[in-house]
Design goal:
Blueprint lengths: L4 E12 L2 E12 L3 E5 L6 H8 L5 E8 L2 E2 L5 H5 L3 E4 L11 H6 L11 H7 L1 H5 L10 H13 L5 E5 L7 H16 L3 E5 L3 H4 L5 E6 L2 E7 L3 H12 L2
Parallel strand pairs: 3-8, 3-9, 6-7, 7-8
Antiparallel strand pairs: 1-2, 1-4, 4-5, 9-10
């Protein structure tokens, strides 16, 4: 693996029971890069994310994180390599306040952002610091899910469908946060169906279809390859 790759996946096959869901995925993410996994529903985006975190039934191939092979490694050890996962379902503790949710995450690696730093990044959460999770809007819950990952000290962020079902004004705010995190040097892999959101943010895009990577597009190639992207994504 080249030294500037934070994440390198080679020949990845993944299975849920007898279901073969990923068929030889090859992707890499360099340090400080933001890379998206694009595709239609059921294409294999989330299965790729869950495979990185060790959360599928069986994985075959290679997933190297910060130079370490993680095939066969349990999820808690993967997290301690500095990987923070923001799941599609968010996982907010509904009976705890915003601030209590932020106080819970363990330190996976190094020092994470402080609660005060996160409240500066997410002003909405500061206003709702004493509100239980059940009282937060969908957008506020998504911001809280991202903020909670940043508490762990992870420097490789794996973000799964962070704009799904959110109002355009909230999607715009989350885009601003993602740009800020990139400017701070975070490495990010973003599984996303919303191409309009992802296009201006990412350095590179991988398009996944039926568990295969069918296209890789660098940011500077977007205009030239929009016809094929439209065909694959239906955008």
């Amino acid at each position: 693996m080249t030294t500037d790759n934070a994440l390198e996946i080679s020949g990845l096959h993944a299975y849920y029971g007898e279901s073969h869901v990923l068929h030889g995925i090859d992707i890499h993410v360099r340090r400080g890069e933001l890379v998206t996994l694009l595709g239609r529903n059921g294409s294999g985006r989330s299965s790729t994310i869950r495979s990185i975190m060790g959360l599928v039934g069986r994985r075959v191939g290679s997933i190297r994180i910060a130079g370490q092979e993680t095939i066969g490694m349990p999820p808690h050890r993967i997290a301690r390599l500095g990987v923070g996962w923001c799941p599609e379902e968010r996982g907010i503790f509904s009976t705890l306040s915003t601030e209590e949710n932020l106080a819970l995450p363990p330190r996976a690696r190094g020092e994470g952002l402080s609660i005060d730093e996160l409240f500066e990044m997410f002003p909405n959460l500061k206003e709702r610091r004493n509100s239980p999770g059940t009282k937060l809007s969908g957008g506020e819950q998504q911001m809280l899910a991202i903020a909670r990952v940043l508490r762990t000290g992870a420097d490789i962020l794996v973000l799964d469908e962070i704009t799904e079902g959110l109002a355009p004004v909230i999607v715009k705010r989350i885009g601003e946060v993602v740009r800020k995190l990139k400017s701070l040097g975070y490495t990010m892999l973003l599984a996303e169906q919303n191409f309009v959101f992802a296009a201006p943010l990412a350095d590179r895009h991988y398009v996944i279809e039926e568990g295969h990577v069918v296209m890789e597009v660098a940011h500077h190639e977007l205009e030239a390859k929009m016809g094929k992207l439209n065909e694959l994504l239906g955008v």
